[in-house]
């Protein structure tokens, strides 16, 4: 374990060197704490006996359940949700849990259905296949409704309007979608960003398995722009001051929950549950918690309460690097 911590801290050092200005020390401290937490989390996770449900792939959302609810759960069974927990604020890792708007809304839907939610984390380009094959009951991953996807799964009523936004370096000449012609564009594999940049004339597309990796490539000058969903884009830009978000959206889209084509009954129940949650305000409460002025997540809270945003940028980048280092060392 010690080796892992050292590796994690080494990752931090390298990254903190790239941090600029007089807050470098503070950044290093914050980054080190973050890495230590990361390492401690890894250690705690390792210490835990390996119950099947506790593997990284199958994280159960911790829910405070009353005895009555538990009884309902036992009757209703488990609602398995496929997601890709690399998409803040919709789904991301917080310690051993997967949290975010989708994770919480899914838990509320499961509760409406008298079921227990189980989240299965996978690559984004696998979530629809998981639903098709029956490995998951629903997919919720900030999934944009498209005509092509409608051919393979059914979609619930839309629950969020979203857009693809363009992230560029602070000093970039790219000022809007039209300037992407002939540029090198980073996207997350299999997303609508990936699909729609195909139409940009003479552009070359670099595909990454995580949105954050595309953003890292942008910061390293390996791509000229990143096209990614608006809310994660805001999270990434808030954490890194050398990049900025362009105002003009690349596309306008709608997110919905995917269900297997033959599962019309579940689709109906999900739409009913969504309607109830929108009506009673619980849906908005979740959205406000993660976006806007509502109660803050640990992530956005850190961004906003830190006097210097760059502190968060360094620690976040370091934590990501530390995570990778740890994985490599393991
Ligand atoms: N909304 C985008 C899509 O559906 C990206 C979703 C994601 O990366 N999780 O393709």
Task: Furnish the topology, listing elements before pairings.
Elements: H1 2-18, H2 24-47, E1 58-60, H3 67-76, E2 78-83, E3 86-87, E4 91-94, E5 97-99, H4 101-112, E6 116-121, H5 127-133, E7 138-139, H6 147-152, E8 153-155, E9 160-169, E10 184-188, H7 192-197, E11 204-208, H8 211-219, E12 225-229, H9 230-239, E13 243-245, E14 251-255, E15 258-260, H10 264-279, H11 282-290, H12 298-305, H13 309-329
Helix pairs in contact: 1-2, 1-13, 2-13, 4-11
Bound molecules: glutamine.
Brief write-up:
This protein has 330 residues and is an alpha/beta fold. The chain has helices spanning 2-18, 24-47, 67-76, 101-112, 127-133, 147-152, 192-197, 211-219, 230-239, 264-279, 282-290, 298-305, 309-329; strands at residues 58-60, 78-83, 86-87, 91-94, 97-99, 116-121, 138-139, 153-155, 160-169, 184-188, 204-208, 225-229, 243-245, 251-255, 258-260. It is built from 13 helices and 15 strands.
């Amino acid at each position: 374990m010690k080796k892992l911590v050292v590796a994690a801290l080494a990752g931090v050092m390298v990254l903190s060197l790239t941090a600029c200005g007089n807050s470098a020390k503070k950044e290093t401290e914050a980054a080190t704490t973050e890495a230590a937490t990361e390492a401690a989390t890894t250690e705690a996770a390792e210490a835990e006996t390996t119950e099947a449900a506790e593997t990284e792939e199958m994280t159960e959302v911790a829910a405070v359940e009353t005895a009555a609810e538990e009884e309902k759960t036992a009757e209703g069974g488990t609602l398995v949700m496929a997601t890709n927990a690399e998409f803040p604020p919709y789904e991301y890792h917080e310690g051993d849990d997967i949290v975010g708007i989708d994770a919480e809304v899914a838990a509320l839907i499961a509760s409406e259905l008298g079921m227990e939610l189980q989240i299965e984390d996978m690559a984004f380009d696998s979530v629809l296949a998981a639903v098709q094959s029956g490995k998951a009951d629903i997919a919720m991953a900030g999934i944009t409704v498209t005509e092509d996807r409608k051919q393979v799964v059914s979609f619930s009523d839309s629950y969020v309007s979203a857009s693809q936004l363009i992230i560029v370096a602070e000093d970039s000449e790219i000022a809007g979608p039209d300037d992407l012609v002939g540029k090198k564009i980073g996207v997350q594999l299999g997303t609508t960003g990936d699909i729609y940049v195909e139409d940009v004339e003479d552009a070359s597309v670099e595909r990454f398995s995580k949105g954050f990796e595309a953003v890292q490539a942008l910061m390293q000058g390996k791509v000229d722009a990143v096209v990614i969903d608006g809310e994660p884009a805001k999270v990434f830009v808030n954490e890194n001051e050398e990049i900025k978000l362009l105002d003009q959206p690349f596309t306008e889209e709608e997110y919905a929950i995917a269900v297997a084509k033959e599962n019309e009954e579940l689709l109906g129940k999900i739409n009913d549950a969504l309607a109830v949650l929108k009506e009673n305000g619980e849906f908005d409460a979740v959205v406000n918690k993660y976006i806007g002025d509502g109660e803050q997540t640990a992530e956005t809270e850190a961004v906003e309460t830190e006097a210097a945003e760059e502190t968060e940028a360094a620690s976040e980048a370091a934590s990501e690097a530390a995570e990778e280092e740890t994985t490599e060392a393991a």
